[in-house]
């Protein structure tokens, strides 16, 4: 198929559960000009499949490995060494990854604009602090980052271009961390603090002070320290707010 697929730029194999490392080898060989590759929720692909990908496709800037539970830090090492112009990376539920692998990505893939680390509860501040190296980052999903501390979040606040931040169930976070984000990320449009009981109205006040004109979506459902407000009161804090979710 190489003649017919040689110019293909985007390949989506999401949900193709029967594709193995061998399949990745064949298809990537046929598509050397791929820029976007997605293989969501494939439990058969391993580090060997990623080795074939980086060998055959040199121009990938958008990579989705969400749910590929059998890839390890070795894959992140290969990605960091071969895709230093990577702009989007989704590692949702890649449960074998550790701080060491993520740090390789953060050190070498400095052009990342979107990073999804959803449900990677084993990662720690050692890696989270280095997210601050991504000065072009606009989208960051840390949902379920149970080890994320206020100190690491204050480092992430150095990502000045951040527009979307998901901190759902980041249970160690308090007002201290959110205030750092408010002061540092003044282009913030979306913020989820869902389920974080350690944040209070102090966080809301800081966000209003520094991000009032940019925030359009704010989720504080389960944040029991934040009091209820009327729609008019919210618009006084965030005049461009389109969606606000608060605890029942």
Automatic annotation (TrEMBL):
* Gene3D superfamilies the record matches: Ribonuclease Inhibitor
Which InterPro entries is this protein grouped with? FBXL15_LRR, Leu-rich_rpt_Cys-con_subtyp, LRR_dom_sf
**A matching Pfam family:** DUF7885
List, alphabetically, the SUPFAM superfamilies matched: RNI-like (SSF52047)
Task: Mention one GO biological process in which this protein takes part, according to its record.
Answer: SCF-dependent proteasomal ubiquitin-dependent protein catabolic process
Identify the GO cellular component terms for this protein. Answer: SCF ubiquitin ligase complex
F-box/LRR-repeat protein 15-like leucin rich repeat domain span: 7-229
Q: What protein name does the entry list?
A: F-box At3g58530
Q: Which organism is it from?
A: Olea europaea subsp. europaea
